[in-house]
User: What shape does this take?
Amino acid sequence: MEEKKNILTYEGLKKYEEELHELKVNKRQEVAQKIKEAREEKAAETEEMGKGEASGGIGNLDKIKSENEKMNEPIESEPEAAEPKEEESRG
Assistant: This one.
């Protein structure tokens, strides 16, 4: 397939070169700065979420631990298991 070629005037070429320069230099730096700021913001949010999750997790584990300790306490009212009685007289 044959490539389509455009014929530009000197002014048109200058316009495209200036636009290309603007994109390569200025816009690229702007985009890089925005990416950097977004990454920093995301890192800060992630750190805060991690701290919150850790605090919540600690609270949950403390609750589970205290409930588990309560469940492991001996229950006084529970009758002991009855041992099977042997027949006293055999035959």
Observations:
- Residues 9-71 form one domain.
- The helical segments are 10-72.
